[in-house]
Amino acid sequence: MNSIPTIALGLAQSGLPVLPLRADKRPFGNCRACEDLACGGRPNMAAPGPCACPWPCHGWAAATTDPIVVGSPQWAAAWRRARTIGYHPGGTGVTVVDLDHQAAVDWARATLPPTTTVPTTRGQHWIYRGAMRSVNGVRDGVDIKSTMSYARWLGPGTGTLAELPDIVRALAKKKPTPVRPAPRAMTVPASAGGGQCRHRSPAYLERGIAMAEQRITEAVSSVHATVYRTFLAVLSAHGPCGCLTEAHIGRLFNAAQARGESPRHCADAWSNATAALGM
After folding, report:
1. What count of other Cβ atoms lies within 10 Å of the Cβ of residue 204?
2. What is the pTM of this model?
3. Which end of the chain has fewer CB within 10 Å, C or N?
């Protein structure tokens, strides 16, 4: 029977961008050199790996098809601790409609065109040809995983791969209601550079917000604590510069609400983070 790293290597060689996942189905956290985006993030967050860091520590962005990376000593250490294989759907040009319970599966059968399906622990993955942006919670028990996201590899599935239908693309347009942060949340020091990051390029801020959204979106437990820690990390890196705008904060709030956080919890977490940093 093939081991996890052997299967992963075969998938990578077939063109599937893979990454190791922990027992809780989440990617491995940042290595010490990359904590709180000290590394600046990946050079190109819009494309699949390999990550600039040799360790598989950047979530979906670490997914790669390079067999040398997959079989490297740094990845070998992670594979030994991994319990399953993840992959970047958007990196291979597909979209996964993740159906988390039977009611969601029944909805898909009545609404979506047939395609390749893969059974999961509680429901099914419906896979379509074509990439799109990833959105969680588009309806009860339904997540869309494609670009800037990862899904578990659970086998090739059954059925013929169909083209991504407009009805799935339309689901991604349903966004959580934007929430304005509490007034105190906006009281961060202004910078002399007119809102520009003085210590990094503007791309650093964008990568930081994207990674923060990912961290919140991929939380499967302790969501409230994850949201607070993420807000704290963002404020620690960018609050002193005064480069955070309402649009950036709104993106973080929307990601948190998509994981079930209430507007009040978002505002409280942000306020607590600003207070902890003395802002």
Report:
1. 17
2. 0.64
3. N
Q: Which two tokens stand for residue 129?
A: 């040809």
User: Count of alpha carbons within 13 Å of 221, Cβ hemisphere only?
Assistant: 4
Neighbours of 89 (CB within 10 A): 29
Nearest CA among 113, 128, 88, 99 for reference residue 214: 88
Using the CB atoms, write b or e for 229-261: b if 16+ within 10 Å: bbbbbbbebbbebbbbeeebbbbbbbbbbbbeb
Cα gap 172→128, rounded to integer Å: 15
Q: What is the pLDDT along the chain (279 residues), one digit of tens a residue?
A: 459 999 999 999 999 999 999 888 888 877 877 776 666 665 444 444 456 788 888 888 889 999 999 999 999 999 999 999 999 999 999 999 999 999 999 999 999 999 999 999 889 999 999 999 888 888 889 999 998 889 999 999 999 999 999 999 999 885 544 444 443 444 444 443 444 555 556 777 788 888 888 888 887 667 778 888 888 888 887 777 767 788 888 888 888 887 777 777 788 788 777 777 766
| Three state DSSP letters for 161-217 | CEECCHHHHHHCCCCCCCCCCCHHHHCCCCCCCCCCCCCCCHHHHHHHHHHHHHHHH
Reported as half-sphere exposure (CB side, CA atoms, 13 A), residue 37 has a value of: 27
Residue 80 makes CB contacts below 8 A (sequence gap 6+) with: none
Strands 124-129 and 162-163: parallel
Distances (CA, A) of 267 to 37, 185, 215, 221: 23, 7, 18, 20
Please give the Cα distance from 19 to 27 (Å, whole number): 8
Structure tokens at 274: 């600003």
**Cα–Cα distance, 249 to 179 (Å, whole number):** 9
